[in-house]
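--- STAGE predict ---
source: upstream dedup step, 1 unique chain passed
mode: sequence only
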Amino acid sequence: MLVRGSKLRRIFYICTSELKQTRFIHMRILFVGATCFELYQFFENLIEIEGEGKNIFHYKWYDLEIDLLIPGIGMTFTAYHLTRALYASKYDLVINAGIAGSFRDELSIGTVVNVKTEQICDLGIEECNSVVSLFDAGFMEASQFPFENGRMINPNHFKELELTAVDGVTGNISHGSPDSISKITCGFNPDVESMEGAAVFYVCMHEKVPFLEIRAISNFVESRDTAKWDIPLAIENLTDELFRFLRKFAKIKQLS
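--- STAGE serialize ---
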């Protein structure tokens, strides 16, 4: 039986309650990752059952059906391939998983976060010391669906995830210039940065598919110095959290 909308919240409650997972509902989940590299540790622990085309693959983990979509880096590729995937198959949950940059000292490298809101930071008008959004420029209403006061807010971001909930910003450039970073922090006040999150929010909210964005911090958003990054740590921690989350839904045989 497939599950939609508010039913997913009920399933999450059942699976995490004191009933100790006595009820299980078969689910089909789509993972969206910009690159295979970010999710390879996770998917090497699953059973691949077949491939389809160049960027979508099928797996099983216990009683869960799990598909992986690799659309490429950036919002355009993500929006196009995700929309095609949602029209081709029905999913109970979409999970956008990968690495991200942190704007906050308290969100240290290796921290895994639950991105609850998204803004698009490079869609607007650039002025000398700021970026004027389409909302502030008068081209769009700030609360035109799926936006609320210029932000997209995930209605299914699951406080029960036990991950720090953060505000995200998405751009088609990984920022490393002090001037551009200053404009983004002043204009959008984000916690983390990615290059695909807002596209997943936009598509899933329009298609009414429950979704999550789970990211692990690989670097701080500052003048680019990859020597300070720790992508392996971010991927390891992300993998651990993804399996911890899926165990709440999967019917796992207990060892005697």
